[in-house]
Design a protein that fits this description.
The chain is an alpha/beta fold. The protein has 13 helices and 20 strands. A hairpin with an 8-residue loop joins strand 16 and strand 17. Keywords: Pyridoxal phosphate.
Amino acid sequence: MERSIAGTVTNSPEFEHELLDHDSIQQLEDEHGSSFYVLNVKKLRENYQKIDKAFRSRYANFIIGYSYKTNYLPYLCKELSKLGAYAEVVSRLEYDLALKIGEDPKRIIFNGPLKTIDDINYALTNKSILNIDSLYEIDFVKRFAARNPEVEVPIGLRVNFDISQNGFSALQEGYKYSRFGICVNNGNLEYALTELNKMENIRIVGLHGHFSTKDRSLESFKIITQNLCTLAKENIMNSLEYIDVGGGIYGELPKPYDMFVPTFDDYAETICGIMNKEFSDYHKKPLLILEPGVAMVANVFLFIAKVIESKKIRDDYFVLVDGSVHNVKPTMHKNNLPMKIVRRNHDGSKGKKVFNIVGYTCMEKDYLASEIKDRLPMKDDYIIFENVGAYTIVFNPPFIKERPGIVAMDNMEFTAARKKETLRQFFNDEIYVF
């Protein structure tokens, strides 16, 4: 087996159980086209069980809310729901998807910075877990409470506080402050508490603290969890039902990445340790909510693209595949993903070339991988890109070609999870005017 890391191809023994050889891929191509995703259902279950065990073994009152925005493939969302995951959504579109696949609305966590009054009315009527993100939402909640005085209205607040470390920002891209949540430092949280407590039937039952950090460090989660616990005990202890630490933990990185990352057990030890300490004297400990996305699905998807041609331009080799950078790296970062080359012919040639793998779009920057050193892939070979489960499905734009199909693989049994788009679906005549 072969895997590309940082421009080289090496053995990948953990990949062997997939058994995706040239013949089996060719059979899948006959049905799904010359490029498609593969969802490893077994690996998805393993990820869920590992995260759940790490946290629940240390803090029993725990739930996972899967972050739909990371990859809202219905097949995947249903599988996670069957395992026990709640649906964590950040839009009405995602909320309605959760309902469509049969999720109990009481098991939907509705977050996000933009909610309409109809969204809030709907979520509260359905008794979903609702975390408001901004002050404008308070008026919507109060109106609902005033129209339904006999109904208890439970609300969570997403809070914003400083998580910098030693004077340096811990946020993605080095932003000084997070733009999300209700600010603790400028008095907005105090205002929100006062306004919501004016209504007798509103109960503030939880605090939410998701921050997108650049290093996903244990120290960041220590600061987040500690602040949430302190704020809850100071302000809503009599009504507290949950602490929601958000998501953003690392998943299991493919070997042999030369990078230390915390394990699920490391995160659980940090977060649950604080929860147990802060609520040790309480008969009923609050629920702990974790909202993983990348950690749950990044390593459960493969993208398989057929080689169309290998050509030489001046002294450089380019391998054209039926795929694009959008399929594997929608943010167009420069790192090479783990990959495997599945060859039609095993001619035993030892000659190696340095080559780039490029896509079907007309963009010069459409590089799926750069400066790979190995035997040059040839026409009708396949290249399997690993670790493509996070954001590739949801960020994949309708650009030049239709979206590829998705195949669910469960112990070498294959099921279509999304069909390859047709022209009619690409240009949906219910929304396009011809």
